[in-house]
Structure formats: C-alpha cells, structure tokens
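ugh ok fine here u go
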Amino acid sequence: MKLGALLATAGVIVLAAQGAPAAPAPADLSTTVSPESVGFDSARLQRLDDYLAGVVSSGKVAGVTALLARHGRVVGFRSWGKANLATGQPMARDEIFRIYSMSKPITGVAMMILFEEGKWRLDDPVTKFVPEFKDLKVLTQDASGNVVLEPMRRPPTMREIMSHTAGFGYGLSDANPVDRMFREKHVLASNGLKEMIDRVATIPLKFQPGTDWSYSIGVDIQGYIVEKISGESLGKFLDEHIFKPLKMNDTAFYTGPERASRLATLYAGDPKTGGLVEATKLFDEQAPDYTKPPLMESGGGGLLSTTTDYARFCQMLLNGGELDGVRILAPATVQLMDTNVIPKAVLVKSNGTVGEGFNDAVGFGLDFMVVKDPRAAGTLEGKDTMSWGGAAGTWFWIDPTNDVVFVGMIQRFGDQGGIDLSEQAGTLTYQALTRPDK
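structure:
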C-alpha cells in the first residue's frame, strides 16, 4: 500500500496558510486525497514508504507510523511493524507513544496562552516567577584552569529559558559537571515540580545567561511557571486549554489502565546483539509506570500522544493558531514562536565556530527549532519550518511555506541505530513535492 492510501478515519484537519485571515474550510476527516491533487508525485512518494518499511524490516526499529498532510488534507498515513515484539501486536495507527521532548512545543503553547493574557513578557527575569533562582551561581574556570563558581551577572529571562540559552543543565548525559549534578540529585525524578525547582536551585548554571546554547531543563521550568501563574496543575491546564479544544483525546501524562494496552513498548539498541531490547532504565532512572499519574508532570518530556493527536496540534499551529473553528493562539503569536531568538553572538562564537549546529540558516525560536534559510541549511523543506523530536525517535515538522505537516512516531530510545529518520524522511517527502504551487 502506498503512503497515499489510508483508512477512512484519519483525524487530520484542513489547513490554512499560517496567519491567513480567512477561517479554514470544514475538514473532511472521512477521506484522503491523492498525492497529485496536492502537488506530490505518487511514484516518488513511494520512496518514503519503501524507506520506512525498510527501516522496520532491518530490525533497527520495531515499528513506525507516519502521517503526511498538505493543505489540510491527508496525503498518507501508514504504519509498519510491531508495537510489541514479544506479543507480535501490530503497530496500529492509534498507538500511543512516549513523545518525550515533543512535549516541549506543547508546553511552549501553554506559555504563549498566558503570554497573550498579559501574564508575562519575554524579557521578564525568571526570578519574577521563580525566586528560588535568585542566588544561582555559574560554573566556570579561572585563569589557571581551576573550576570556580561566580555570581550570575543577571538572572535568566523568559526568552532564554524558552530557547535554551539560560545556562541550565539537564542531566541527559554526564559529559558536563553541571549535568552530572543533575543526575546525582535525580532532578528528573523529582516528586513534583516544586521539588524539581528546589533541586535545580542548588545546581550552578553552565554559563552566564544569554551567552551560549545548551539543551536544558528550561521547559520543565516553564511547566512550573504555568502552574504558578494559572493556579492549576500543568496537566489540568494543558487538558483544558489545548487537549480538549483540539480533540487530542489520547494526549496526557499517563494512559490509565483503560488505554494501557495501546502504549507501544519502548526499546533500546542491544550493543551485544545489535538487536532491540525492552528499555527499562532511562537517563539512569527507572522507566516510569505510565498507567498511573506521574510523580512529576514533566512539560519537557513527560507526555504521551498518538500520531493523529500530534498532527492536530501541528495543524493548529500551521493554521496560525486555529483548528476546526477553535482558536488557541493568535497568528502573530505563532509567528513569534517561529522566530529565531538566539543572539547572533551565540549563533557564531567569538572563535568563529558555529555553536550547537545553529547558524544564520537554522536557529531556535520559542520551544522549536526554526529553519530560516533551508537551502543554506542543506534541506529541501520550506522557509520558517518549525520542528523537533523526542528521545524515543519521534519527530515532526510544520512547514508554513509549503503548507505541510509531517508526524513520525517510533519507539526506540536513544541512538537510532546509525540512522536519522527525520532527516531522511524530510528529503524523501520533499523530493516528491514536484508541484509546490499546486
């Protein structure tokens, strides 16, 4: 079956160009369209199907689902492989996945809902909402190379915690002494967001705020700020303001027993056999039980979702903040999220090297990576494409120039076996878009 042929219940909505003044037309959720009707070449698009099927048959991933939409119409929604290798359970199109860092853009939208209500500004110091951070130190070296702590020159701003330029660590690796402290203090296993904040407050920053880029716990801090400003738990706020309005019915911090059978089993690469083994420890912590509420609602990596649910979230952003007549954000707010906020001095360091893969072509907005010059970046996608991925290999992109949404879901934690699914899927999608004007 080609990617353009799918079953009749693809829950993806109609698409209007980002920021368009007219409301989107009613979505046709019962049918799909031929690739040619929206500018794709079916024969070329088959290369994407063949590639994803091949990744599964190679044993590098257990299963995959992929959804492609253009102009609000589903071009293809397919699944391959297994949700559980031991039982042989097929990968269903409504499978629930651990989306990890794809939680971050959702938390970012929650922040921007409060931004639109005038509750905070981008250049507000984080200490306005998290006074526990007022005495943070910065880990650095003196002239002799000795590790020393120095005071912050100023507190991080809200803009900086949304673009990973605030200086916080994360603990996803142990390469940096600050990240090792995050692991030693079990920050990601805190019993609630307040306890997380208290632990982070005892750990120095990696650098002075605004002077560098490092992937961080900043979005979990945002989740705490959402709670503090709104007076609601993060999960309740997301459910009331994003999930229910967008009909993201399977997106939450846990499944409960009633949906547990739909949660795809998580795997990791086995260095001994080269195959897959079930992942039971993540970042040195025991894997959580997703059938019950978590100890900490992690806005940076705790959500579960389905391919269709996440596509609805992406479509809302591509529509300029609206979906099915429900407005979540104003078009200008979506455009603000899609604007690079990394300072020029951080994009290119003083020694002439490019920091963390970001440059004039590819930057970072408010909880998204943003592509400003795709051809200079070496990609085929459109200008202003927003994207990110998760630790278990899930990925998405939102392309306002070509009116395209793509969501891919897999369940392999950590290294993907030497492949880059998101980059390859992007190339194979856009090489098939032969009529971008259609």
